[in-house]
Amino acid sequence: MNQSRISNLRQKLIDKGFDAILIVKPENQYYLCGFDGEGFLVIGKERNIVFTDFRYVEEAKSKTTGVEIVELKYNISPYEKFAQELISMGVKKIAVEGHYLTLKSYEEMKNFFNGIEIVSTENLVEELRTVKDETELDFIKQAQSITDKTFSHILGYIRPGVSENDIALEIEYFVKKSGADGLAFPTIIASGPRSSLPHGKPTARKLEAGDFLTIDFGAKFNHYCSDMTRTVFLGKLDKEKERMYNIVLDAQKRALEYIKAGVSCKEVDTIAREFIEKKGFGKNFGHSLGHGVGLEVHEGPRLSQKGDGCLLPGMVVTVEPGIYVEGFGGVRIEDLVIVTDDGCINLTQSPKDIICL
Questions:
Q1: pLDDT in tens, 241-272
Q2: What is the C-alpha separation between 289 and 255, in angstroms, rounded?
Q3: Residue limits of the Peptidase M24 domain (predicted)?
Q4: pLDDT at site 236
Q5: Most CB contacts within 10 A, which of 66, 136, 209, 354?
């Protein structure tokens, strides 16, 4: 599996005229060779090398395939060691992850890479990661299954007097207890008027009757993420809150029905956005409709007005329209789906009917 991924990347390097690429981003290192410690990965035309220090050498040897392991010494700059190996490999032009490499690292690299042209690139590996294989899909399915199980559990925990922090802690505990590596990202909990914050961090605020409560969380299983959002209500639901919820739900349903391979990412966003605009809440839907999910909870493709390209079979994306009214509250409903040739498979099994607790 790793060899096919490396081969695909190597072909991209050849097509773009590169002799090698330096991988710094941890998720990209893991995707290509299975290494999840601290270090660097170089993919060349014939050799692939993981550079790491003493703390991770044994782990690198046991977890990686198709790569050499070179130990970095504490008294020598890693870029000096890179340069030695690159020169021995005959590298004249190397790609680097310009969106991830720090300026300090780049300057240090220039000091040692004499005679080697350094070119900043973006998303060479991330583009390969957008379409998932069956193993990746299985891990994402298991992560989402844990997320659904956790949501079912947390519904029995929510009541007036419980704080947002209490809910976030219970979610993290239950996710790990259910077999996940941990959370896919810091849980978003926003209640009452705070629910108008799309990415509200949990606070000590205690739930009150009449509150909106938005919960956005995910699990990570074998490095792969899930992502889900539900908005529930405490106590009696008034007509305006019910109307807002149903608009978001209908917008999501329309987008889900539209998704299939070949459809442009921008079009999917437009379907939901125009529906919400017609209902008078266009200015209250200020984020994109969705994003890819995999080794990172936010990755390509992007379902937005700036989204490039079309959906492909095997892509995993969120569909998460929302309406946020400052001082009143907000609603977001998010599902995780696999794109197929003729539609999509919804991995999220948690109910979307209005839940009043």
A1: 999 999 999 999 999 999 999 999 999 999 99
A2: 9
A3: 140-341
A4: 86
A5: 136
Would you say 319 and 303 are in contact if contact means Cβ atoms under 8 Å apart? yes
Tell me the residue type at 81: K
Alpha helices in the chain (DSSP H): 2-15, 26-33, 54-63, 78-88, 103-112, 124-129, 134-155, 164-177, 239-258, 265-278
Interatomic CA distance for residues 220 and 348, integer angstroms = 15
> What's the longest Cα–Cα distance across the chain?
72
Strand partners, 322: 332
If you search the block for the tokens 């899930």, which residue do you land on? 226
Tell me how far apart the alpha carbons of residues 343 and 232 are, in angstroms, rounded to a whole number. 28
Please answer whether residues 181 and 220 qualify as being in contact, where contact means their C-beta atoms are separated by less than 8 angstroms.
Answer: yes
Mean pLDDT over residues 208-224, rounded?
98
Torsion of CA 294, 295, 298, 299, to 10 degrees: -70
Q: How far is CA 175 from CA 139, 162, 167, 179, 218, in A?
A: 15, 19, 12, 7, 9
What six digits make up the tokens of 88? Answer: 């021995």
Coil, helix or strand for 348? Answer: coil
The torsion angle over the Cα atoms of residues 60, 63, 64 and 68, rounded to 10 degrees, is: 30
All domains in the chain, ordered by first residue: 1-129 (3.40.350.10), 131-346 (3.90.230.10)
288 and 305 Cβ atoms separated by less than 8 Å = yes
Distance CA 213, CA 194 (A): 9
